[in-house]
């Protein structure tokens, strides 16, 4: 049985295809079933026969972004697990592969733990996927490379656009807790002076004053500015800007009360629609709204207008769901590794190992060539469930990847990320040969 | 002399390469110069030697989105033109190619008219580019096909995403006056039940009530909904929603005053930053803000909450500048035609014709194969400058392309648009074979 869970990626179906492809080669496996919408589909016995799909269909699905089986955001409890095992027993399911992110590793761990307690003979494996790259243990995670490629190419385009019609452009990038995806915007830099000229990560905190003054400096030097900001942009308390009392207080101090009124008005809309949304795992909704980008644009617009006494061309985009599911932007390396992780999980499970999460490890290479191996880690180490309370259950960017002034990444980050995104689009530039 | 003007596209540099490639083959042409930032660069004599670029650089630039020479939004007046001719005379410029959209056709027409009045011997040609496809005369316009491909693939991804985690997703698409680009979202439909399930175009008007009730109907039937909306979404008076008194009045009537407060709060921010922005041609800024998408999400969220008594998963994205400049999403047909239009303009100019705009015309074909010819039209017919006052100077979608219920396009539109976007990404789907 295989299922998919959490937010989709461009290559989550490659992992599915990897599981199926490998499982087809083992006589011990009598049937290969896909659970629709992850654990929810297990509970309602909604299964797809993956053996019956045929190679052509599976290969088409593998190339298609988003979860082909459908996804869910469901955290199984002990009673759910008992029900799951009843259903598994009925269909003689002894191998379960769950493709997903942090929360899915947690769910897989719960299922594994209760299977052991209940003495249900089950091999349970977590196949990693996330565009955020915030999974513990692994060097990087399938799904990240393709999302990073999308972000890099979106910033390439935005940089060229901003060069062509100068002004200030702010782009908000996905990644709630970790800045890996926002950092990938740095890969858009090809020619001298290329943006992004400033990168704000959730691993650091920013005041409104710091934010606008840094942009002011960049604009003064370049006559344009392309800014990359994580949706997890936070204040010194770790609160995201839209929900930050510190930001509100600072806006008032900066005589931008008009923005506090707007934030209040925005909050009241949520109240009229049933209140702020938290998912089953307790995360607030940050994506699917342009509010942060609009706030950043407004703050900057007012600041620059006051400084220069005239309007600066200012635009802000929220890169949106295209980051995780745009059709037609896949990193070759990412697709291959996603496939590999699914196939490897099946091989490890069939070798007799009862549980684990599939991870990647870079090998040192004299030539600098990208070489990456795959290995099994303990479920608990990846989900972080055994961590001391209060310790982060996800992987933030390490300090050596973030510039000391907190407004950029380091060359080490670019070196780490570059092989993961595969081929990037061409970014040509006319030679500055003036008419003689 | 060649220049680029207006909003960039993915293939505007292909047109530039077409001009250069053709000009290089004619001995009569002694120099090939690019004006940086269009007419602005002419006025400040900021030229790039395009002959000195070399083939490799030009081909790299051709594959690069956005205006390699830099762009502008500048409407030349009579005095500017006199200045332009002085500079042209100084450098012996007798051929001028201006790559741009409606406003650039207008600018080219002004330069042509004043050249004639001033007896300055000049060949002036407009090479079309626009992602909006709203140019008069031509069947379609270079730049549209690639933007339409981006929109189609973004909607493919959003549809798969929405299938995988059901809810309501609203995407706002560029296109101020005409719905061509929004309509291209229909090309994302591959499998049964695929979205977008509703398409709102600027050629029609919509009340808030119509909008939310249509979504309610779709959601009831499909348990999910993917909605495509033009940034030019307008009320019955032709005013865009964010600036519509009718929409405000209706929101109050629907007891959604909280949204009117939010619209007021948004308006006040603009006042603090120097007032609402109009460009040199008098157009209001619609892009580069998530406000419309957030308004539509909020209206729908409140409506659905009241109808169902529970929250529906609701997200909205504004597709943003990636539509016109994402690096790595180019329609092959579009790239070829953009190149062709530049080269053809040079050939027509060198044959002695004094002015014109390059257009495309589809040929009837028995097999259904896409066959398209290129021809010269009068500048004035393309810019619409001679139109009676009040008549639209751009091309809206024709009635036969819009569904009678105004919430979709017709099969005729899909047939018209499909060849323009070239190859589309794969959208595979698992066969619904249940476990036996």
Give a description of the structure:
Two copies of one chain form a homodimer. Chain A is of the alpha/beta class and 436 residues long. Helix content of chain A is 39%, strand content 13%. In chain A, the strands form two sheets. The first copy, chain A, has a seven-stranded mixed beta sheet with strand order 3-2-1-4-5-10-11, sandwiched between helices. Chain A has a four-stranded parallel beta sheet with strand order 7-8-6-9, with helices on both faces. In chain A, helix 1 packs parallel to helix 13, helix 4 crosses helix 5 and helix 8 crosses helix 11. The first copy, chain A, is globular. The model of chain A has no long low-confidence stretch (mean pLDDT 93). Chains A and B meet through strand 3, helix 3, helix 6, helix 10 and helix 11 of A and strand 3, helix 3, helix 6, helix 10 and helix 11 of B.
In terms of topology, how is this protein built?
The structure is a homodimer of 436-residue chains.
Chain A: E1 2-4, H1 12-23, E2 33-35, H2 39-43, E3 47-49, H3 55-62, H4 78-90, E4 95-100, H5 102-117, E5 123-128, H6 144-164, E6 168-173, H7 180-183, E7 198-200, H8 208-222, E8 225-230, H9 245-253, H10 257-272, H11 291-308, E9 314-318, H12 322-325, H13 332-350, E10 355-362, E11 372-377, H14 379-383, H15 411-417
Parallel strand pairs in A: 1-2, 1-4, 4-5, 5-10, 6-8, 6-9, 7-8
Antiparallel strand pairs in A: 2-3, 10-11
């Amino acid at each position: 049985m295989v299922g998919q869970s959490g937010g989709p990626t461009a290559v989550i179906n490659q992992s599915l295809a990897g599981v199926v492809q490998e499982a087809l080669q083992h006589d011990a496996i009598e049937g290969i079933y896909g659970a629709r919408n992850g654990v929810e589909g297990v509970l309602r016995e909604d299964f797809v026969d993956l053996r019956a799909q045929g190679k052509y269909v599976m290969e088409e699905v593998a190339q298609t972004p988003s979860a082909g089986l459908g996804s869910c955001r469901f955290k199984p409890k002990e009673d759910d697990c008992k029900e799951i095992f009843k259903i598994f027993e009925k269909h003689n399911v002894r191998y379960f592969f769950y493709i997903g992110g942090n929360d899915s590793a947690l769910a897989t761990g719960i299922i594994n733990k209760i299977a052991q307690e209940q003495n249900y003979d089950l091999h349970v494996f977590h196949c990693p996927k996330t565009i955020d790259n915030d999974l513990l243990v692994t060097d990087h995670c399938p799904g990240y490379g393709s999302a990073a490629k999308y972000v890099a190419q979106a910033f390439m385009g935005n940089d060229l656009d901003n060069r062509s019609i100068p002004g200030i452009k702010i782009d908000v990038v996905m990644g709630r807790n970790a800045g890996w995806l926002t950092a990938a915007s740095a890969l858009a830099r090809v020619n001298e002076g290329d943006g992004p000229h400033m990168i704000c990560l959730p691993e650091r905190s920013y005041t409104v004053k710091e934010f606008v003054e840094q942009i002011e400096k960049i604009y003064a030097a370049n006559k344009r500015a392309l800014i990359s900001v994580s949706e997890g942009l936070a204040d010194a308390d770790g609160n995201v800007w839209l929900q930050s009392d510190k930001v509100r207080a600072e806006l008032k101090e900066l005589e931008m009360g008009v923005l506090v009124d707007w934030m209040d008005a925005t909050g009241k809309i949520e109240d009229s629609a049933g209140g702020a949304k938290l998912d089953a795992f307790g995360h607030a909704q940050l994506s699917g709204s342009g509010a942060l980008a609009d706030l950043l644009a407004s703050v900057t617009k007012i600041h620059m207008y006051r400084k220069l006494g005239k309007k600066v061309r200012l635009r802000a985009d929220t890169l949106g769901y295209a980051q995780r599911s745009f059709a037609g932007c896949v990193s070759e390396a990412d697709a291959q590794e996603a496939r590999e992780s699914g196939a490897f999980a099946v091989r490890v499970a069939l070798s007799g190992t009862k549980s684990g999460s599939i991870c990647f490890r870079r090998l040192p290479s004299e030539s600098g060539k990208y070489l990456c191996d795959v290995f099994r880690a303990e479920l608990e180490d990846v989900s972080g469930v055994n961590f001391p309370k209060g310790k982060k259950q996800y992987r933030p960017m390490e300090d050596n990847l973030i510039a000391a002034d907190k407004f950029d990444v380091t060359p080490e980050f670019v070196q780490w990320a570059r092989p993961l995104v595969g081929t990037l689009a061409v970014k040509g530039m006319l030679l500055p040969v003036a008419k003689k």
